[in-house]
Inverse folding.
């Protein structure tokens, strides 16, 4: 009997459905985009966290990654550009029993919101920040941002990005984050475990998730479709056990020999934020 | 008079000799302030300093944020989780807060912002008086939305209006501004603080249904146009966004939803204006000359009106306690009586409030303006009264 014409079994439900706003599907994300995978990892982590869904809160800024808050079925806030972290801080300080996760993009968190990122890390605030880094501003059509690798082509850097990019894990570590990781959306288990670690870390957790943006960054830089960029991750990622030297963390899409370093780089005990009066 | 019986309590019941900025802080505490996020700026810093000491002692949270962008957003976040929240700033910081003030208006998250006005624009005269943020308070964030703004004319009113600001913010789910000017903020006068039981508290409207019933629609409204508010952690799984949204809170990116939503944000304040607005009248009954003034300027105006009366001129004062909503109905009523022949609008800016009066009348409006750094004296005002 031939198996060719038989349609695949289409599941009518998924165990994580209660944690997703499936009434908002289909989502707005492009084919090959990695943001959905990150949302999936976050939802998996919430399901495994042992924390009641009513005690999870998701806060996003603006951009493609900023839409993440709109798809998770927990108290969720889609705020203004750059300010997801202080919004989340207000919630986390007023109701410390809540587990507040920020999901936003590299531009939102490290350009317009960069000041809040370093100060929340400095305070070791009880927040988990998942920074989906797709190396450009995807929502607005593929402009350069502070994470665009040198030489990459974007609509606002048609001759190639000239400025040195941020090295986000090193930035978060230097500012005082007690848990710092970088994974790609190929590393779904590791990413989920890192998010889970973040949820349980009483201090500030920063998780960079490298993600393809085939529509904008991928197309402009001949990286192929989402799968092709995943293949780049598979071929070039190296897992580090501790924070690599600053330059080793750089991401370079041109130099095929250069590894992309991933891992849980920092995981230390450091006294978390305590409100005044509770020291 | 003696000092407060309960020195470390939330409500310092008793009679005090108190700074305006401190009276603001005490009013907020009496109103049940849970969360303060702020960034130091002259001439509002004493609000933060007072709360840094007082708020943690009564179980609240004080956070000194990294900038005003963070301050305003943190208080909106705290309020989304159910806190009565406050920030305090001055013109430059107020400008920085504008984008997220629009977010609070759009998400309908109540919060209170103290803006102690100094001579502006830009850095201006940081330690000297201004009244030039009043149009910014009304129109400063992009788009149409409703807000309320109160202008105390004494430390006592700083206390009283801080309480009212929280009640109006929670009742209508809007950002509310407490617009001091430097003179009032740095003035020390008698402040009488009532017993805790006598502090009025307007609670937020909360959902009629339990989370389990799954019937709560975060932005469904009744006649008063104000939706019931569920907070983070209560189990309702709310979604709030600054995007145009439907009753579920979900993005609905179309013109019809947008027009209906923005009209409601404006109308919930406009149609309830007479419940929100406050003003104070002095000798208006037979007045031919009506001075319209607010904040420190209204103190000179009252004295000028007295002096004018003493020399036989029929002069009165309409003192605005709420600048927004602007009590336009009251001015229309005065005009309908037919006695008023002119208005005088003294203000420490180059004519911001005068525009509001100009909208309502073709009678002459005599102006007394100073760009900032000095308030008009009673003699300055008396001089222009014919």
């Amino acid at each position: 009997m031939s198996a060719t014409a038989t349609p695949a079994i289409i599941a009518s439900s998924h165990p994580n459905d209660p944690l997703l706003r499936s009434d908002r599907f289909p989502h707005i994300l492009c084919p090959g985009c990695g943001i959905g995978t990150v949302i999936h990892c976050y939802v998996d982590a919430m399901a495994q966290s042992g924390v009641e869904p009513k005690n999870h809160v998701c806060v996003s800024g603006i951009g493609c990654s900023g839409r993440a808050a709109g798809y998770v079925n927990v108290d969720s806030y889609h705020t203004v550009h750059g300010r997801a972290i202080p919004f989340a801080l207000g919630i986390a300080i007023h109701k410390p029993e809540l587990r507040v996760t920020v999901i936003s993009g590299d531009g939102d968190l490290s350009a317009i919101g960069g000041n809040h990122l370093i100060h929340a890390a400095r305070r070791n605030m009880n927040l988990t920040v998942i920074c989906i880094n797709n190396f450009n501003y995807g929502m607005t059509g593929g402009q350069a941002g502070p994470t665009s690798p040198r030489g990459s082509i974007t609509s606002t850097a048609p001759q190639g990005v000239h400025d040195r990019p941020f090295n986000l894990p090193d930035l978060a570590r230097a500012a005082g984050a007690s848990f710092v990781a970088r994974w790609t959306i190929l590393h779904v288990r590791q990413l989920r475990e890192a998010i889970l670690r973040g949820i349980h870390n009483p201090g500030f957790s920063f998780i960079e998730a490298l993600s393809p943006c085939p529509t904008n960054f991928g197309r402009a830089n001949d990286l192929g479709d989402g799968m092709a960029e995943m293949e780049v991750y598979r071929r070039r990622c190296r897992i580090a056990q501790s924070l690599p030297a600053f330059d080793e963390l750089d991401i370079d899409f041109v130099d095929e020999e250069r590894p992309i370093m991933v891992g849980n780089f920092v995981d230390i005990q450091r006294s978390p934020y305590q409100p005044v009066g509770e020291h | 008079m003696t000092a407060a019986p309960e020195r470390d309590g939330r409500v310092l019941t008793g009679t005090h000799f108190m700074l305006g900025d401190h009276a603001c802080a005490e009013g907020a505490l009496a109103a049940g302030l849970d969360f303060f996020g702020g960034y130091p700026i002259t001439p509002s810093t004493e609000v933060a300093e007072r709360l840094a000491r007082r708020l943690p002692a009564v179980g609240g949270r004080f956070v000194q944020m990294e900038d005003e962008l963070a301050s305003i957003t943190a208080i909106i976040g705290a309020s989304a989780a159910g806190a009565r929240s406050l920030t305090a700033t001055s013109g430059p910081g107020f400008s920085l807060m504008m984008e997220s003030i629009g977010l609070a208006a759009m998400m309908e998250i109540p919060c209170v912002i103290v803006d102690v006005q100094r001579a502006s624009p830009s850095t201006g005269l940081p330690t000297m008086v201004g009244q030039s943020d009043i149009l910014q308070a009304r129109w400063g964030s992009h788009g149409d939305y409703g807000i309320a703004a109160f202008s105390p004319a004494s430390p006592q009113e700083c206390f009283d209006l801080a309480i009212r600001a929280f009640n109006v913010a929670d009742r209508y789910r809007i950002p509310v501004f407490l617009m001091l000017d430097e003179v009032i903020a740095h003035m020390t006068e008698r402040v009488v603080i009532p017993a805790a039981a006598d502090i009025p508290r307007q609670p937020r409207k909360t959902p009629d249904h339990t989370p389990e019933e799954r019937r709560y629609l975060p932005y469904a409204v009744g006649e008063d146009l104000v939706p019931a508010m569920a907070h983070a952690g209560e189990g309702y799984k709310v979604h709030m966004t600054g995007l145009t949204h439907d009753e579920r809170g979900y993005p609905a990116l179309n013109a019809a939803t947008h027009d209906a939503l923005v009209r409601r944000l404006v109308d919930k304040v406009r149609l309830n204006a007479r419940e929100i607005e406050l003003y104070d009248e002095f000798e208006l009954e037979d007045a031919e000359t009506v001075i319209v003034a607010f904040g420190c300027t209204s103190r000179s105006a009252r004295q000028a009106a007295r002096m004018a009366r003493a020399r036989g001129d029929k002069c009165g004062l309409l003192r605005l306690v709420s600048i927004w909503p602007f009590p336009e109905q009251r001015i229309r009523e005065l005009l309908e009586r037919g006695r008023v022949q002119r208005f005088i609008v003294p203000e420490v800016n180059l004519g911001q409030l005068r525009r509001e009066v100009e909208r309502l009348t073709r009678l002459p409006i005599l102006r007394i303006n100073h760009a900032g750094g000095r308030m008009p004296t009673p003699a300055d005002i008396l001089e222009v009264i014919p």
